[in-house]
Amino acid sequence: MVKNNKDNILIIEDLHVEVEGKEILRGVNLAVPKGEVHAVMGPNGSGKSTLANTIMGHPRYLVTKGKIIFDGEDVTKMLPDERSVKGIFLASQYPTEIAGVTLINFIRQMVNARLDKEMPLVEFRGLVNEQMDLLDMDRAFATRYVNQGFSGGEKKRSEILQLAVLRPGLAILDETDSGLDIDALRIVSEGVNRLLGPDMGILLITHYTRILDYIDPNVVNVMMDGKIVKSGGSDLAHDLEKQGYDLVRNNN
Fold first, then answer.
1. pLDDT digits 0-9 by tens, 15-54
2. Domain residues of the chain, as ranges?
3. Alpha helices in the chain (DSSP H)
4. Any idea which architecture 8-249 has in CATH?
5. Which residue of 85, 102, 186, 187 is most buried, as measured by CB atoms within 10 A?
């Protein structure tokens, strides 16, 4: 079991999850403290994205056993919008296009819901413009429909923009490096590093180590067959890069 302490923004206890009657997660235990980056690596089909979507409350993922505790509160049965308002954010592997909704209005609705009041428009636009400039995003993107016609890199920058404005307690980055070229990866990673602070924990899910060259994790967890089978420091990621997941398979 995971040790519970007041610095953990996320605690997952013996989490079992089914999708359409098939068990995918088979007893995941994990803790992410505030101010730290915890990476989850693993081969295809190991359960990484299932873990991300389950923490966010996607209705397709059925929790059959275990708990998800966020900031000291059991959120296992909460709806996704309730978790979002409380401060859980998911940057999806495949960001959804939303026709007819501009990016600026989408972010504004999220901010107002999180604050439970309306942020003054001038303050809001100033905040968005500042973060767009830091992410090297053309401000014209704010008036385009969410992710519609965006390149892969633009979609990922849009996700980090939302993260930067919302400032959640927990940021789940599900394969944010997927489909990014070197320049986009650097810009997105720099954005994540700027946001990491004492009040935010980051759960970084990835196949590869290249994003870990830019974002230094406190802990690297390896997931296989629906469980976390090994944890270590950043050196573990470099060992996996050299030897592949057979490094873990051979020891388990």
1. 999 999 999 999 999 999 999 999 999 988 899 999 999 9
2. 8-249
3. 48-56, 80-86, 103-115, 121-134, 152-166, 182-195, 234-243, 246-249
4. 3-Layer(aba) Sandwich (3.40)
5. 187
